[in-house]
Amino acid sequence: MLKIRLLLLLFVFTTGLSYCQGSFALEKDRRRDRINFNLVNNLIIIPVELNGVKLSFLLDTGVDTTVLLNLEEADSLQLKDARKISLRGLGGEELIEAYRSDHNNIRIGKAVNPDLTLYLIYDEAVNFSPRLGVPVHGIIGYDLIKDFVVEINYARKFMRLHEPGRFRKNLRRYSSLELRFFQNKPYIQSRVVIEDKPVEAILLVDNGLGDAVWLFNENDDIKVPEASFDDFLGLGLLGEVTGKRSRIRAIRIGDYTLEEVTAAFPDSVSVQGLRLFEDRNGSIGAEVLRRFNIFLDYREQKMYLRRNRNFSDPFNYDMSGIILEHSGFVVVETYEKVLDDSRQKGQEVYRQTPHYFKNFELQPAYRVVQVRKGSPAEEAGVKVGDVILSVNGRNAFRYNLEELASLLASEEGKKIKLEVDRAGKRMEISFELRKLL
User: pTM here?
Assistant: First the structure.
């Protein structure tokens, strides 16, 4: 199943910031706590309470600081001891104005940290919620994971936070991997097979990356396969990240081998500043990680994997050339049928008389934000800014973004018929999905 490609963040501080802050702990001397999460486009979204305000954060092993992104639904949130700083983000070299806030109280399930430092990016342009179709107010990674043994069950959509000193689970049936850390981010040793050439690779463990694998083709061993195409790879703080999309023959992770894996090769301009760890060859993302049940033990520098029911899913990719985002709402007319009981005169007969009431409902609208050059959608005339009204005769609002993305990656030759609104004009556009890899 294709997941909408959303690249989350790698923050590079423009100056060497160091700080001390509190840690998370489970309340009431608990040994563990289970937290159910939403899985949206492979990405884990967890409920968070920050300074008394309920929010949704993305759990991302690829970030070493806690970041607050979108305050549209949290106007009452108060941040403590804030001061202005500058950040550098993925997608370019420009600096981004941000605020550092200390001594915040954060609760995730039964885990509480009364002294959290976070970074606020107060910029309307930096908003990942439309690409996911659900609110995402922030991102948390190392600040939480470092204090627990973190169990992630992708198949059943929950995580457990285990108190490290009292963790007793037997992990003999799991594959054990050594973690290496650089700037509080975890890396593993892996082996990738590109065409027919095996290559040892150091990969960032990044479950905030929706793709399967990213590889940097800056050395002689890692080359873009001949079968590839130019594509939009994701969205960073400073704009779009572009590169090549292809497949690799296989990737070996611990005791497991995955074959015919989709891989992205970002261009060098888009990932300037990413290669701070000189041995890094790329990232392993959520499209791979969701195929395992995982334990992360940062204190012991270990990751444990065991395959789950997603393991044999094929690695798919978009075959239409369209990237969509949630773009506000549309007003939809609906009709409600109500039956009134009535008695016929002179007879003991009951009749039910139907009445219809017109309702108006707000339903999600989906807008085209990217059209890949040379794709079936572009050739058929789909334009950036088109609002999708229906897909194959079904109202678009009856889908969520993930379902639409899966439909556009379903099978080669599948016919897609869109009804779109283009600047107030309704149009019908048809094309067939085409396989490129």
Answer: 0.85
